[in-house]
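Worked example 2:
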Amino acid sequence: MTAPLVVFSARLGALTQMEEQLLPRARVAVAELSDRDSIAAAAEGATILVVGAVEPLDAETLARIPSVVAVIRRGIGVDNIDLDAARRLGILVGNVPAASVEEVSDHALALLLAGLRRLSEFDAAARATDGAATARIGSSLPPLSSTTLGIVGFGRIGRALARKARSVFGEIIACDPLLELRSMHDSVRIVPLDEVVARSDAISLHAPGGAVVIDERALRAVRPGVVIVNTARGSLVDEVALARAVADGRVGAVGLDVTLHEPLADEDPLRTLPGAILTGHAAAKGKESAASLRRGVIDNIEDVLDGRSPRFLANPDVLESARLRLAVSTEKENPR
């Protein structure tokens, strides 16, 4: 009997000994999964696909991979996967929800502090031996203890950031559509998005992809000199409107780990945006995070190979689908 085929997106890099431990119970391959056609071709005969954050698994693509019983996202967000279509087709979607929480929240805090203290501007002034610029920049900086941090999206990473930032900022507020307005969570008050935008001296984005959060309307309402940090999804920010807001002084500094287009084109205006720090999707990097992330993916894969749903199931309603492609065993509960 032929072993099940597990296909990893080439975007995730070369396989390691951790993935190779799936042998010989499964065949393991790496393939380009960049568009509908390449995904359909690579997934022919595959049982499991492992993807990153950008592989386009929309309804049309999912309909073209009839042998696939599970898609595993190497990471947290699953906004590049049409969960409704996966449910209708009976495809399990797994992810690694605890992946890189500490690293991404660390990175967000570093970008926030760098922006609020205008480190890129100080660096440029020091390199130019421009003492007048150093004095001018420094004269406008408030103590961080008098500033308000606004967090958009108060899930695992947003809460980790709040925990770490509590001793730095004077106040922390957050918005999250899944939480009750005006309720308190971890000493953080949940408020509407408009209030986060209007009251915050620094805004950190931790929402899943979808609707644009920082658009022209929001940028007209921000406090002058606000710092905006995005370690979540590039689609959350209208980058053209952001560049204009930086140019006219409404936004004082920007920290972008993610952008709408990755990598940035040579002519992309973000490359020369004043006061911007770009980190090229590095927020999740860390000595321990890579191994933890790979381990979480392998755990999900092994669950599926054993006839169980992934222990981290992003679309639990699929288990009620009459078209479920995997005969999920109920004899052994997955650890949660």
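The mean pLDDT is 94. DSSP finds twelve helices and 13 strands in the chain.
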